[in-house]
């Protein structure tokens, strides 16, 4: 692996405008302009796995303020398949979404389907869960699929292993292979002028490997950089250290995307550590199980205690679901969600609207506070609302924020 | 004049007089609610929601202005005496501790409807409540003289006539469909038919007395009463029909019918009342027949069934002129069909609905294959829109006196039935299945078995590979994977 070989020049189809940096933490507020419009950062990206945010129309998604959502290469490659995507003219046309799309490479599914997959230098061998037929996913194939999908941001295929793998040799191999695969992805990428290829920093929880990977990937000059291989069950302290280490080595003028993060407290801490973009299926998935994500924590509205609770899902929340009818909202109550949850699809739709809106507006408030340079105060308020008493604050978050100059424990 | 019949204002616009057995044009108006031009269909709800349509989608992308709610959808607690499935005990105990169905505890001001509040229905929606959802599931337990058997989300129970009256007072829907003793799923014998009439007669008399009989105006219920007409011969329910015309006439604001044949036995003095028909027409052809017999409001269970089945309606009234070829036009497009995989045309040509304006057949085909919920949402939007136009066309045609002629050509132009469903719809709910005995086979095959099989196959194939790190050329030569061209 060498950093000196001449490389194909890397065009970029985005502009990144850094507006403000928090004077205490590493948090940044910026605007990422992609081929389908500007995206305010930091941002949470809801996941439309199979070209649909579970049950929501794209107008409902727009009303939550979403400018950028995810599609999943692995799933779209299986259904509807590349030939349909080519015939239809890409994922934007397929799903009638005129804002931005980011696609992952399909690599993460290798972790979730690891039992079925073997990784070789050539690519990832696995079995289609739809019909059981064996498939080989190479970096070239992943990029070709993402070129067919036409997403605004495409991800390299990386060698993902379980974050908590104890095998350091394997972690090192995965990191180095991810760099080699990045080169193959760059070579295979047909439309660098309209689709932005992001590299993915690997290296498990080993900070030295992460540093090495950052150095290798930064010189390859992709339009954006992702930190991958996290959210796999590692301790939150480890997660924070990796994010902190990586953001410290990444160029300031590029967007940084931490993959697979969706819990509200993880998001705000990662923002404080200098990350800009996040995605996770959790807010939409948990909505289908009747869980409401609110400023005061996450509640399972299928619990009997909500059967007679006629308050809105999240009081003062301005989303369509929670807003009272007098203010043009739907005036949905917890009791009604209790009545519908897991019984009618409408219950899932309503909570999905709320949860997506909550996370998008949480990131919006983060951004505003960074622009006004009052992010530390925002953090304090956030944790106070989520956890109430200071004794309930998670130690990892307190520790991580202390590293960037915010002590949640002091008043 | 009693307080019942003046709550609902129903004007028959055409024809001027109201002969039985002819299509008629009307306008159903209640103070504060969207008025409904009839004939029209009454959107059906499940647990107070129109299936797959969240409240903002209804507001933004449909013209729905009235809904039917079955009270049984909100009932959960069992009387203690009744046998319960063992797994439900804890749920029931908890609910008992919390005291009865939450629906009844919805806070509402005296002028507000608790039902409306509970299901978050807009103020202008006309709310019609009945005891049972539509279509109802036949219950294994029989009705009693003072109660009917209902299906709640946790099993069967009896709904007392008394509780139903109380529910009406508490929930204050705009219109209540009176309790009827109906036999579902089998033919009732002669004796049982007599009982049906006697019990329904008693339910109607008691309920109207309890709701509107008070000498004090302020104590009278503001909910209008639609009296049931039983799906029996005229002669079998003569006494009941007579009382409806005489003593009860002032209390009732409309009639609820359970088969289209009942349209022909409505006594003339009741002819000016709106007729709500609860049956299950299978096709638009049958809808036309019912309208021809003078039905005003219809329930159409085939609407959500078609959406669930992946069907996009494709019919209009008046029908397009028959093309030269002999094949009948299909009533709907099966979007699951692989022929739609790359078809970028709207669900149906020239349709102005939200789904057709923003999406195409290829997307719906993909969503259905992927079992994404949005498929059913978009199909519901489209199918409601097609029905809106269908009924608007019918009303226009009645006004112009061309209804019969157009209905004739509709039968000639369109296929007699909807296309065959292929593939699976959304997960089936309890109310969509007829209750069988114990130990029923699972409704759907276990999805994860396929993956387990695949894993076995993979383990086998792997053992025949030279090394786990075999390159793709080697794999291809072994037929393990196909290398695609990049």
TrEMBL record, chain A:
Listed GO molecular functions? metal ion binding; tRNA-guanosine(34) queuine transglycosylase activity
Instruction: Name the source organism.
Output: Aspergillus sclerotialis
Q: Which cofactor does it need?
A: Zn(2+)
Sites binding Zn(2+) sit at 317, 319, 322, 354
* Gene Ontology terms: biological process: tRNA modification
Self-association or partners: how does it assemble? Heterodimer of a catalytic subunit and an accessory subunit.
Q: Where is this region: RNA binding?
A: 260-266, 284-288
Entries under Pfam families matching the protein: TGT
Report the catalytic activity: guanosine(34) in tRNA + queuine = queuosine(34) in tRNA + guanine
Q: Which domain of life is it from?
A: Eukaryota
Q: State the protein's name.
A: Queuine tRNA-ribosyltransferase catalytic subunit 1
Q: What is its EC number?
A: 2.4.2.64
Keywords, in A-Z order: Cytoplasm, Glycosyltransferase, Metal-binding, Transferase, tRNA processing, Zinc
InterPro entries per UniProt: TGT, TGT-like_sf, tRNA_ribo_trans-like
Compartments in which it is found: Cytoplasm
Q: Which residues form the active site?
A: 104 (proton acceptor), 279 (nucleophile)
- GO CC terms: cytosol
Give binding positions for substrate: 104-108, 158, 202, 229
Cited function? Catalytic subunit of the queuine tRNA-ribosyltransferase (TGT) that catalyzes the base-exchange of a guanine (G) residue with queuine (Q) at position 34 (anticodon wobble position) in tRNAs with GU(N) anticodons (tRNA-Asp, -Asn, -His and -Tyr), resulting in the hypermodified nucleoside queuosine (7-(((4,5-cis-dihydroxy-2-cyclopenten-1-yl)amino)methyl)-7-deazaguanosine). Catalysis occurs through a double-displacement mechanism. The nucleophile active site attacks the C1' of nucleotide 34 to detach the guanine base from the RNA, forming a covalent enzyme-RNA intermediate.
Report the residue ranges that make up the tRNA-guanine(15) transglycosylase-like domain in this protein.
25-386
Q: Does the record bear Metal-binding in its keywords?
A: yes
Family in the record: Belongs to the queuine tRNA-ribosyltransferase family.
TrEMBL record, chain B:
Ranges annotated as spanning the membrane: none
Q: Where in the cell is it found?
A: Cytoplasm
Single GO molecular-function term?
tRNA-guanosine(34) queuine transglycosylase activity
Q: Which GO terms are recorded in the biological process aspect for this UniProt protein? A: tRNA modification
What are the boundaries of the region Disordered? 418-486
Pfam families documented for this protein: TGT (PF01702)
Cofactor: how bound: Binds 1 zinc ion per subunit.
Q: Does the keyword Transferase apply?
A: no
Say yes or no: keyword Zinc present: yes
Q: Name one GO cellular component term.
A: cytoplasm
Q: Which SUPFAM superfamilies match?
A: tRNA-guanine transglycosylase
**Keyword annotations for this protein?**
Cytoplasm, Metal-binding, tRNA processing, Zinc
Q: Where is the composition biased (Basic and acidic residues)?
A: 449-460, 475-486
**What residues does the tRNA-guanine(15) transglycosylase-like domain cover?**
112-414
Predominant subcellular localization, coarse grouping: cytoplasm
- Obligatory cofactor(s): Zn(2+)
Query: What InterPro entries does the annotation carry?
Result: QTRTD1, Queuine_tRNA-ribosyltrfase, TGT-like_sf, tRNA_ribo_trans-like
**Annotated binding of Zn(2+), by residue:** 351, 353, 356, 382
Similarity-based family: Belongs to the queuine tRNA-ribosyltransferase family. QTRT2 subfamily.
Task performed by this protein: Non-catalytic subunit of the queuine tRNA-ribosyltransferase (TGT) that catalyzes the base-exchange of a guanine (G) residue with queuine (Q) at position 34 (anticodon wobble position) in tRNAs with GU(N) anticodons (tRNA-Asp, -Asn, -His and -Tyr), resulting in the hypermodified nucleoside queuosine (7-(((4,5-cis-dihydroxy-2-cyclopenten-1-yl)amino)methyl)-7-deazaguanosine).
Q: How does it assemble?
A: Heterodimer of a catalytic subunit and an accessory subunit.
Name the UniProt record assigns to this protein: Queuine tRNA-ribosyltransferase accessory subunit 2
Organism in which the protein naturally occurs = Aspergillus sclerotialis
State the taxonomy lineage: Eukaryota, Fungi, Dikarya, Ascomycota, Pezizomycotina
């Amino acid at each position: 692996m060498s950093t000196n070989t001449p490389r194909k020049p890397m065009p970029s189809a985005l502009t990144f405008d850094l507006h403000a940096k928090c004077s205490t933490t590493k948090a940044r507020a910026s605007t990422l302009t992609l081929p389908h419009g500007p995206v305010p950062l930091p941002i949470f990206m809801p996941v439309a796995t199979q070209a649909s945010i579970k049950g929501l129309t794209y107008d409902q998604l727009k009303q939550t303020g979403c400018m950028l959502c995810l599609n999943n290469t692995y799933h779209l490659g299986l259904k509807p398949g590349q030939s349909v995507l080519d015939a239809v003219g890409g994922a934007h046309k397929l799903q009638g979404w005129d804002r931005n799309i980011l696609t992952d490479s399909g690599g993460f599914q290798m972790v979730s389907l690891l039992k079925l997959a073997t990784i070789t230098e050539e690519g990832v061998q696995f079995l289609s869960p739809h019909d059981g037929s064996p498939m080989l996913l190479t970096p070239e194939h992943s990029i070709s699929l993402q070129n067919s999908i036409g997403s605004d941001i495409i991800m390299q295929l990386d060698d993902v292993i379980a974050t908590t793998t104890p095998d350091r040799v394997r972690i090192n191999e995965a990191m180095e292979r991810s760099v080699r695969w990045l080169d193959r992805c760059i070579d295979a990428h047909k439309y660098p002028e309209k689709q932005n290829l992001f590299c993915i920093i690997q290296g498990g929880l080993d900070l030295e490997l992460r540093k090495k990977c950052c150095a290798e990937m930064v010189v390859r000059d992709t339009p954006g950089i992702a930190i991958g291989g996290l959210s796999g069950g590692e301790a939150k302290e480890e997660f924070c250290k990796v994010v902190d280490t990586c953001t410290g080595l990444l160029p300031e003028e590029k967007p940084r995307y931490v993959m697979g993060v969706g819990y509200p407290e993880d998001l705000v801490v990662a923002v404080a550590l200098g990350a800009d973009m996040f995605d996770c299926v959790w807010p939409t998935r948990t909505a289908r199980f009747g869980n409401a994500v609110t400023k005061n924590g996450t509640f399972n509205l299928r619990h009997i205690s909500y059967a007679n609770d006629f308050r809105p899902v999240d009081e003062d929340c301005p989303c369509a679901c929670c807003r009272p009818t007098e203010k043009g909202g739907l005036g949905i109550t917890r009791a009604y969600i209790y009545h519908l949850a897991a019984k009618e699809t409408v219950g899932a739709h309503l909570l999905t609207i709320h949860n997506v809106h909550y996370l998008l507006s949480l990131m919006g408030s983060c951004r505003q506070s960074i622009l006004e340079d009052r992010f530390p105060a925002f953090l304090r308020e956030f944790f106070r609302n989520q956890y109430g008493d200071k004794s309930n604050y998670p130690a990892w978050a307190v520790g991580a924020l202390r590293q960037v100059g915010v002590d949640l424990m002091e008043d | 004049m009693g307080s019942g019949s003046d709550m609902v204002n129903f004007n028959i616009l055409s024809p001027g007089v109201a002969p039985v057995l002819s299509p008629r044009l009307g306008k159903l108006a209640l103070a504060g609610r969207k008025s409904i031009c009839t004939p029209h269909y009454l959107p059906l709800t499940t647990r107070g929601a129109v299936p797959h349509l969240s409240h903002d989608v209804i507001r933004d992308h449909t013209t729905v202005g009235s809904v039917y709610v079955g009270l049984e959808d909100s009932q959960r607690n069992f009387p203690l005496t009744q046998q319960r499935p063992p797994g439900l005990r804890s749920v029931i105990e908890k609910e008992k501790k919390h005291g009865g169905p939450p629906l009844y505890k919805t806070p509402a001001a005296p002028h507000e409807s608790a039902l409306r509040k509970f299901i978050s229905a807009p103020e202008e929606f006309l709310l019609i409540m009945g005891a049972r959802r539509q279509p109802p599931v036949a219950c294994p337990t029989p009705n009693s003289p003072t109660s009917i058997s209902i299906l709640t989300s946790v099993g069967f129970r009896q709904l007392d006539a008394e509780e139903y009256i109380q529910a009406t007072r508490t929930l204050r829907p705009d219109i209540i469909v009176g309790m009827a003793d109906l036999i579902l799923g089998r033919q009732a014998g002669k004796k049982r038919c007599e009982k049906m009439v006697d019990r329904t007669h008693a339910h109607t008399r008691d309920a109207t007395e309890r709701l509107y009989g008070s000498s004090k105006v302020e104590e009278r219920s503001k909910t209008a009463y639609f009296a049931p007409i039983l799906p029996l011969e005229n002669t079998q329910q003569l006494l009941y029909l007579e009382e409806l015309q005489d003593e009860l006439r002032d209390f009732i604001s409309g009639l609820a019918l359970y088969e289209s044949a009942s349209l022909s036995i409505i006594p003339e003095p009741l002819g000016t009342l709106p007729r709500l028909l609860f049956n299950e027409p299978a096709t638009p052809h049958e809808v036309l027949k019912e309208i021809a017999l003078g039905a005003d409001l219809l329930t159409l269970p085939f609407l959500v069934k078609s959406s669930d089945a992946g069907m996009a309606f494709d019919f209009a009234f008046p029908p397009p002129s028959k093309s030269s070829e002999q094949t009948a036009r299909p009533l709907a497009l099966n979007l699951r069909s692989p022929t739609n995989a790359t078809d970028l045309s709207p669900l149906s040509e020239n349709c102005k609905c939200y789904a057709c304006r923003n999406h195409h057949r290829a997307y719906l085909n993909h969503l259905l294959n992927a079992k994404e919920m949005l498929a059913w949402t978009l199909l519901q939007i489209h199918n409601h829109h097609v029905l809106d136009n269908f009924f608007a066309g019918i009303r226009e045609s009645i006004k112009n006196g061309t209804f019969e002629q157009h209905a004739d050509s509709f039968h000639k132009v369109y296929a007699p039935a909807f296309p065959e469903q292929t593939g699976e719809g959304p997960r089936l709910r309890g109310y969509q299945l007829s209750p069988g005995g114990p130990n029923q086979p699972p409704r759907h095959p276990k999805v994860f078995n396929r993956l387990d099989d695949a894993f076995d196959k993979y383990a086998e194939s792997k053992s025949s590979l030279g090394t786990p790190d075999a390159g793709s050329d080697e794999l291809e030569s072994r037929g393990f994977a196909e290398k695609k061209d990049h």
